[in-house]
Design a protein that fits this description.
Elements lengths: L1 H11 L16 H11 L5 E6 L4 H11 L3 E9 L9 H9 L5 E5 L7 E5 L1
Parallel strand pairs: 1-2
Antiparallel strand pairs: 2-4, 3-4
Helix pairs in contact: 2-3, 3-4
């Protein structure tokens, strides 16, 4: 409810206020993300923020968004290279081994990393 009201407020203050540009999908992201992107092949992901820490959901969601990433898409990984939460890093390394990207550390939050798809 809070997120939905925040997104509604944001959209009402947008130039294209009559066009719905976001949707909240409830449930287990490892299950809902693959279904969502399969049902919406028109989707392009410009920005994705991952803060799951765990291997299974991170891998499932990364795999789901990969066909929707285009040059310039940004994928932020909250626990990339974390000794305490290695799952995100392992999933990332498995899925992005053959992809072209540049990896950056956030200058504002130095324990956060993001990649830009080339």
């Amino acid at each position: 409810p809070y997120l939905e009201s925040l997104l509604t407020y944001h959209e009402k203050n947008n130039v294209l206020r009559n066009v719905r540009k976001c949707e909240v999908v409830e449930g287990d992201a490892a299950k809902t993300a693959p279904k969502y992107f399969k049902a919406h092949p028109e989707t392009i992901v410009a920005l994705a923020y991952f803060d799951m820490a765990l291997y299974e959901p991170t891998k499932a969601c990364l795999k789901a968004i990969m066909p929707c990433l285009v040059p310039g898409s940004v994928v932020m990984l909250d626990e990339l290279n974390s000794r305490d939460y290695p799952g995100e890093t392992v999933a990332f390394k498995e899925l992005f081994a053959d992809r072209r990207y540049t990896l950056h550390k956030s200058r504002f939050m130095t324990d956060r990393s993001y990649l830009v798809i080339q």
